[in-house]
Specification:
Layout: E1 3-5, H1 6-16, E2 21-24, H2 31-38, E3 43-46, H3 50-64, E4 68-72, H4 76-80, H5 82-91, E5 95-101, H6 117-121, E6 127-130, H7 137-149, E7 155-161, H8 162-165, E8 168-170, H9 188-200, E9 204-208, H10 210-214, H11 218-228, E10 232-234, H12 260-268, E11 271-275, H13 281-284, H14 287-291, E12 295-300, E13 314-317, H15 320-334, H16 342-353, H17 367-377, E14 383-386, H18 390-398, E15 407-409, H19 419-429, E16 435-440, H20 441-446, H21 451-456, E17 462-467, H22 472-478, H23 498-504, E18 509-512, H24 518-532, E19 536-541
Parallel strand pairs: 2-3, 2-4, 4-5, 5-7, 6-7, 9-10, 9-11, 11-12, 12-13, 14-15, 14-16, 16-17, 17-19, 18-19
Antiparallel strand pairs: 1-8
Helix pairs in contact: 1-2, 1-7, 3-5, 3-19, 9-15, 11-15, 12-16, 17-18, 17-24
Amino acid sequence: MTRIPCMEAVAAVLESEGVDTVFGIPGAAILPLYAALRKSGIRHLTVRHEEGGTHAADGWARATGKVGVSIGTSGPAGTNMITGLYTALADSIPMICITGQAPRAKLHQEAFQAVDIVEIAKPVTKWAVQLKEPAQAPWVFREAFRIARSGRPGPVLIDLPLDVQKGTCVYDAALDAPLPVDVPEPRPQPIAAAVAMLLEAERPIILAGGGVIGAEASDELRSLAEHLQIPVQVTLMGKGAFPEDHPLFAGMAGIQTQTRWGNAAFLESDLVLAVGARFGDRHTGDLETYRRGRRFIHVDIEPTQIGKVFEPDLGIVGHARPTLAALAEHARHASPRHAPGSWVERVAELRSTLLRRDDFDDKPIKPPRVYRELNRAFGPDTTFVTAIGLYQIWSGQFQQTFRPRHYLVCGQAGPLGWEVPAAIGVKCAHPDKQVVAVVGDYSFQFLMEEVAVAAQYRIPFVIVMVNNEYLGLIRQAELGYDMNYAVDLHYGEGGIDHVTLMQAFGCPARRVEQPDEIADALAWASLEAEAQQLPVLVEVMVEREANAAMGPSLDAITEFEPVPDLVPVAD
């Protein structure tokens, strides 16, 4: 066995775990690790803020299904990572954040930038650990990858004191490999019970959450749905788990990101098979309304998730892929392949009648028109990245998604500024794929410095800004308080000119103020991004006080625009 610098062992572990790109900022307390990375085949992108680095690693992980890695030095580098760790934990994203630290002997002496980042990070990680001995280095990192990928995936933080980083360890990469990750299979008895409940139900639906995508279980989901002819809905995190042009697609239910026909179909259902969904409050709304008149089967890899929000009629612990495969297999033995029946026909009727308009020609531009043009301009292989606010809600209501890992959204934590660094991570993961970041004007400003990263490393993607010059979601919430306070961002009276800002970064940008200009601007941006190998901004100026349809429960959604009831979709 060979004795080598322990950080070189860490770099070898990272490579063997499938990490080809990391995002971070070097600093004095993390330089031994950087020295080791320099000798590896891992690409490093220097971000402009540690939070941006975590979101880039998050985007890379969501796009690949692997463990993303972000690196920072000591002190505020680690505290800046907390938002990214929380985001990854909330959305079940496997990620490792690595921080430098003062030498062990100085930790109790208030050394420069010495902070107990392990204790700070514990509430927002699956595991937070400080490396105590150089000999532990490869094994702590192996365990970190195993924990990040196991069960309900999530983030890990590893803190590296400077003196430990400088140590050596005995390590031979040829003798080492990733630790196995358990894929828990369900017991046969609850599988049989679940299939019996599905066969007894008159109006069942399958609810696919983000766990279906994380488990790479879309094929198994489709097999079960098609055999039993059960309509499928998705949560916001589950968008892409089931193709939205499939005859069995039943829309999205919720109190914010929802379709009208999705809510109607859910309310008419009598049984819900939820797989990898956590029943988030923005999905369920009022629980009495959500639960009334239907039974629930809840499948989750994390046992403590079952019953956390409400008690299901049947709980099944298992990884989504083998569980859906077992359900499909049992269904094939229990019943011949079903033909579409009255319930499938009813869902199709709801889909063709309970619509929202997106064809507005109004000036200023109404936001739904932006998403209509996005659906038309970009193909099914485009990966969309979006964050939080009214533009996320409009996106969930109007954007179409057909493939897993092609609609990436920070769902539960909802940090502003997530989109641009996440898009960088996605494009690094798949340089040959088209990436579009849909941003709000205020969210963009949170981490707009990360545009410099994309410009420096020639990372091309399209940024579509839905600019209403307001903190739109907060302004809409304030309507219930009969106030409009502290939300006006009217740039005409001073502030940021986003087009000029992008040009200052050396990146092309265009502002759109007419609805018939959107399509041309999107086409221009796609061509310009690839030609220049740069991020390109299309800023769409939309109606300032536009509201998104939402409400407290699935049966009490306020529609702020006239809706075309009972108007079938045109062929």
